[in-house]
Structures are given as C-alpha cells and as structure tokens.
Request: fold
Amino acid sequence: MSKLPNPPLVEVIFEIRWNANDKNSLDKFQILLGSMFAELKSDFPKVITLQPDAALPVNAFIGIPTHRFTSETGYPMYQLGPGVLSVNMTNPDYVWESFIEAIKKVTKVFESLSELQGKKITIALKYLDFFKCNFSEIDLADYIKTNFHLTVDAPYLNDSKAKTFSFATMRDVEQGHFTMTMNTGYNNVRGNQIEGIITESNIASEIPFEELTSYIDDKLPMAHEHLGKFFKKMTEGELYASFE
Reply:
C-alpha cells in the first residue's frame, strides 16, 4: 500500500483493554509480563520501565502501561500494563502492512498467555495526527473551515477571533464505534513546542476474547480502511495535497 510522502501522522496505536481490577488478575499480570517478554524478546529485546516509582503497588497502574518493549530501532514497540496492551508505531516507520504484522505477532503471544477466556475485551485502532499552524498568523475559525470543512456558525462570536478550538464527533460503524476529536495544542519536535491542531480518529469495539484473532484478520483491516477514507475526506483539497 502506498504511503503519503509527507503525512501529518504522529503515532498509530492498536490497543486492547480488559478488566484487571481483581487480585487474581493483578497476580496473573506479573506472570504475563515476564512470559510475553520471553516469547517476544528476539523481536522486542529492549525493556523500559514506565513506573515512576517501583515501590508503588501494581494496582495503582490499572489501565496504564507499566513496561515498554521495543525493537532495536525503537519501533514498532508494544506496551503492557494491568488491563492494557498496545502496539505502537510512529510516522517515519509506519506502513500498514508492517504494522498489522507486528500486531499479529504480539497478539498471538498475548492470546496464548493471558487467560482471558470467557471475558470481554475492548479493541481500538487509533491515529494521532498533528497539523502545524501559527495561531497568531491565521484566523483559526477560517483555517478550520477551509482545511477541515468544519464550520462553527455562531454570529455572536463574529467580533472575536478564536484562540483555541475543541471538537468531537462519534457514531457507530460496521467495525465498532467511531470517534474523532480535534483540539488546538502543541507537539514536541526535537525539544521545541510547535503549535497546531491535533486530531485523533479511532474505531473501538467490545468483543469476546475468543474473537480476537478473527477481528484482527477480518475487521481490523476494514477499520484501517474506514479511518483512511475519513482522513482523506476530512482534509480533502489543498491540505491533503500538501501531504502528497
């Protein structure tokens, strides 16, 4: 699949979440952590501990990654915490075919070790994009209307120019629940805070654990395609042409 030469992509994330609130799940997490590293260390040999203080109890990190496992070059990587597993890739390394292969490799091991049979899990595919713009040099409302085809029609705001912006939309699609958020903010680029517009588009679905492999094989590529079409439609025109 072709890749845009100059995409605004910051990071793409595949995520699995499950209920890990009970003591049994937390005890099993410690075993899962070591077992997954042992099974995947040839592809993800580098380990980074994300806990700010190792003395803190593991239940303080439910739903939060505690460890990051990276390839020799840094990406792809996967992160694991009690109740959460993610596979991550950033713009310079991202190609869908490579990313989904990394997902399949990690989730195959996770599926064999996690002991979540009979439970529900939530799967999400997320794309984080950053569009650089200088707010002091543009009319923000006009910029958003021109580039993202999104209009806020509020006559009582005509006398004042917007300095910040936040927007969210959601709906059900075949692959799950689609959400897009747009916010003004900053991106750290080589130590410099660059201002611009941040968007996150994602599709999430709650499924039985036993359907994990079939979802990844069948619906995850469809979710990827849906998000790609949405991105192209959202940025259609001069903005999209600037990525080509």
Notes: The beta strands are 9-17, 46-49, 67-70, 77-81, 84-90, 120-132, 166-173, 176-189, 192-208. Helices lie at 23-40, 96-113, 140-148, 212-234, 238-241.
